[in-house]
From TrEMBL:
Pfam families: Gal80p_C-like, GFO_IDH_MocA. InterPro entries: Gal80p-like_C, Gfo/Idh/MocA-like_OxRdtase_N, Gfo/Idh/MocA_oxidoreduct, NAD(P)-bd_dom_sf. This is Gfo/Idh/MocA-like oxidoreductase N-terminal domain-containing protein. GO terms for molecular function: nucleotide binding. Residues 8-138 form the Gfo/Idh/MocA-like oxidoreductase N-terminal domain. PANTHER family: CONSERVED EXPRESSED OXIDOREDUCTASE (EUROFUNG), GALACTOSE_LACTOSE METABOLISM REGULATORY PROTEIN GAL80. SUPFAM superfamilies: Glyceraldehyde-3-phosphate dehydrogenase-like, C-terminal domain (SSF55347), NAD(P)-binding Rossmann-fold domains (SSF51735). Residues 145-297 form the Gal80p-like C-terminal domain.
């Protein structure tokens, strides 16, 4: 058991009717694991109503006697026995379900995107700064083992010298270029805030900056190639065709200032396209070109290398320019993460880092609301002036 008292936690959005939701697949497995229970205790749920929260308590077999049910965000915020509020709702509900808790100085863990737009993200970050609560945002890439290994190669080991450029070709965000599952129909509505740009594109964009440092400047070129999107139900049957106003082809160029990792004006070129790649091509190919060598990461099937799956490669390739040899550098999940399903592994690492950082400066261990607000501002800048 931890020598510190357990963090008393309230989950927002753990639904009894959505057992495949992110809350149940990615958060609950860690929180109910022996390691998670040593540091955290679920003491409350907030859903759309008290009855819905009570149903979820029963569905997931949480202790009825000690798990309180809420249907009102303000009532949850007023509970003095909740230390950390964790939000897993659809993104357009993030702000309204956590702002009261942030305003009372509670600690919060909000999934990414932080809010439906940069304005609301900035407001949450500013309220949090004023009220003094700690925060963590679900940009898992910062704590993913593949990014940690990259940072070691680029930093302490200096395997390729200073970075002069980095390039990415990424496909995905959704499994198909023309079809969206009915339950994710809101991915076609930019105003909701959750879509392939803010999720698929942005998770990778954040990982790049977690590994190489914050970009000094960015410039976007975005397009909507397929505005008509077909919705399909869970059985794969056609539902209807809708119009999308979310870009499905995003190209971003950027530059870094000089740092211990990057040369002055080191460049980024990142191209993201919704849907499948050309047959035989990987879902993600990321190269980092340095003075002395080059690093390459290839993910055959998934955009979300911070989450992983059985087909995600467990190696990073390093090309040494002097010897012309290519070495595979292995990386892996920590032993305790391997006992969890893939979606819960990096989320578990965020919980671990948050618990271990009590009373300390965050440093680079995980993203806060202030970090997330900055990422939202970058996304807003990329889309500046664009109309579908």
């Amino acid at each position: 058991m931890s020598s510190q008292p357990r963090i008393r936690l309230a989950l927002i959005g753990l639904s009894a009717s959505a057992k495949t939701s992110w809350a149940s697949r990615a958060h609950l497995p860690y929180l109910l694991s022996p390691r998670g229970q040593a540091k955290y205790e679920i003491v409350a749920l907030l859903n759309s109503s008290v009855a819905a929260a009570q149903a979820a308590i029963e569905t997931y077999q949480l202790p009825v006697a000690t798990t309180r049910a809420y249907g009102d965000p303000a009532a949850l915020a007023a509970d003095p026995d909740v230390d950390l509020v964790v939000c897993n709702t659809r993104v357009d509900k993030h702000y309204e379900t956590v702002v009261a808790s942030v305003g009372r100085g509670k600690d919060v863990f909000v999934e990414w995107p932080l809010a439906q737009d940069a304005k609301h993200a900035r407001e949450l970050a500013e309220i949090g700064r004023e009220k003094g609560g700690r925060s963590v945002v679900g940009l898992q890439g910062a704590v993913a083992p593949v990014v940690k290994r990259l940072k070691g190669l680029l930093g302490a080991e200096g395997r390729i010298g200073k970075v002069v450029s980095s390039e990415l070709r990424v496909f995905g965000g959704l499994n198909d270029r023309e079809v969206v599952p009915e339950g994710l129909g809101y991915f076609t509505q930019r105003e909701v805030g959750g879509n392939v740009f803010t999720i698929g594109f942005a998770h990778v964009f954040d990982m790049v900056q977690a590994a190489l440092g914050e970009l000094a400047s960015t410039k976007g070129d975005v397009h909507l190639q397929r505005p008509e999107v077909r919705l399909e139900d869970a059985a794969g049957n056609f539902s209807k065709t809708v119009q999308s106003n979310v870009p499905d082809l995003i190209s971003v160029s950027g530059r870094w200032d000089e740092s211990r990792i990057t040369q002055k004006n080191a460049t980024l070129h990142y191209r993201f396209r919704r849907g499948q790649p050309f047959p035989g091509e990987p879902a993600l190919e990321w190269t980092i070109n340095g003075e002395k060598g080059e690093i390459r990461i290839i993910s055959p099937k998934t955009t979300f290398i911070q989450v992983g799956d059985p087909e995600t490669p467990r190696v990073i390739e390093v090309h040494d320019f002097e010897t012309n040899e290519v070495e595979t550098v292995e990386w892996d999940w920590e032993a305790w993460q391997q006992d969890l399903p893939f979606p819960a592994r990096s989320i578990g690492a965020l919980y671990e880092a948050f618990a271990d950082a009590r009373g300390e400066e965050v440093g680079e261990r995980y993203r806060t609301m202030a970090d997330a607000a900055k990422r939202h501002e970058q996304l807003e800048e990329i889309l500046a002036g664009w109309q579908p």
